[in-house]
Amino acid sequence: MPSSKIIDVKEYVVRAHQRTIHTRVFNFVCQQCQQPTQRETFGPRPLYCEQCRRPQAPKKSAVPLKKRKPRAMTYKSGKDIAG
């Protein structure tokens, strides 16, 4: 039976907000240790139990800093552009 959780999302790319995610509990046999197990996840059916493969933190952006587009900047100067 699906369940819902409220999580706090704090990332620098987006404004901090709350998001509701829908999770499911899967009963399956782990591919590594061959033990029947139960795991709650919001994605597809997992292949491994939490002892064999722990949940990991999200990966960083694959684009290096030098390859990203520059941010728009506002400049303050004492002179007006027209003269």
In short, what is this structure?
This protein is mostly beta strands. It contains no helices and three strands.
End-to-end distance, in Å? 69 Å
Radius of gyration: 23 Å
Structural class comes to: mainly beta
Count of β-strands = 3
Cross-sheet strand order for the largest sheet: 1-2-3
Shape label: elongated
Q: Treating each run of at least 4 consecutive H or I residues as one helix, how many helices?
A: 0
The helix content, as a percent range, equals under 10%
Low-confidence stretches: none
Q: How would you characterize the largest beta sheet?
A: 3 strands, antiparallel
Order of helices and strands: EEE
Strand content: 25-35%
pLDDT averaged over residues: 78
Region (Disordered): 58-83
Textual characterization of the structure:
By secondary structure, the chain is mainly beta. The protein is 0% helix and 31% strand. The chain contains no helices and 3 strands. The protein has a 3-stranded antiparallel beta sheet with strand order 1-2-3, with no helix packed on it. The radius of gyration is 23 Å and the shape is elongated. The relative contact order is 0.14.
